[in-house]
Amino acid sequence: MRALMVVVFLLSISATSYAAGQFRVGDQGEEIAEVQEQLVSLGYDVMADGSFGAATADAIKEFQKSQGIKADGLIGPATYSALLGKDMPDISQRIGYLANSIVSASMNYIGVPYVFGGTSPYGFDCSGYVQYVFAKAGISIPRTADVQYDFGTPISTTDLVSGDLVFFSTYTYGASHVGIYLGDNQFIHASSSRGVTIDSLGSSYWSSHYIGARRIL
């Protein structure tokens, strides 16, 4: 049954239209380092470490404002060209690969019990599970749901794609629960009552506690 679920959701990902052609928070590699080096040369306070974090996003927003480009902190073709003076490489295939890796890894832990503060396959809490799964794909994100909520790019529910994070206000005000969106209105998370499981955003409980989503990829 688990193998079937993996196949179904991976097929769902392949049919999803990703926001291709954009570097964003969480990306890593030589292309990011090149962007950061150019930002440094222009006087922005970032480190050219090849890891797209909050400081890089802030610098990109400031650069975009100076160029009359929408200040969203994403590096799309217009921002890339204005910054580096050349066309942006096609990164859609890499984004799809990362999303596939995250969804595939998330399925491996269905049934793992919930443990408050848990960060391993012996037991997860919601944010520990999400952090662990993203780490498996080589992406570092913060530890707790409230901080994860402040990480990445805010997106509307209608723009959700597989691999996005969905957040809920449950036992306390603000982002206190998090899951990974799978597509078709489904998300996977570490439930306090059932462990790692799949639920629907449209269910009465989760829809009434939903507060927003963030894109890391």
Compact summary:
With about 220 residues, the protein is an alpha+beta fold. It has eight helices and eight strands, in the order H-H-H-H-H-E-E-H-H-E-E-E-E-E-H-E. It has two domains: about 30-85, PGBD-like superfamily/PGBD (Muramoyl-pentapeptide Carboxypeptidase, domain 1); about 110-215, endopeptidase fold (from Nostoc punctiforme), CATH 3.90.1720.
Report on the structure:
The model is unreliable at 1-20 (pLDDT under 50). Strand 4 and strand 5 form a beta hairpin. This protein has helices spanning 2-14, 30-41, 54-67, 77-84, 92-107, 126-136, 145-149, 204-209, and strands at residues 119-120, 123-124, 153-155, 165-168, 177-183, 186-191, 195-200, 210-215. It folds into two domains: 30-84, Muramoyl-pentapeptide Carboxypeptidase, domain 1; 110-215, endopeptidase domain like (from Nostoc punctiforme) (endopeptidase fold (from Nostoc punctiforme)). The two termini are 28 Å apart. The chain has 217 residues and is an alpha+beta fold. The longest helix has 16 residues, at 92-107. Helices cover 39% and strands 17% of the residues.
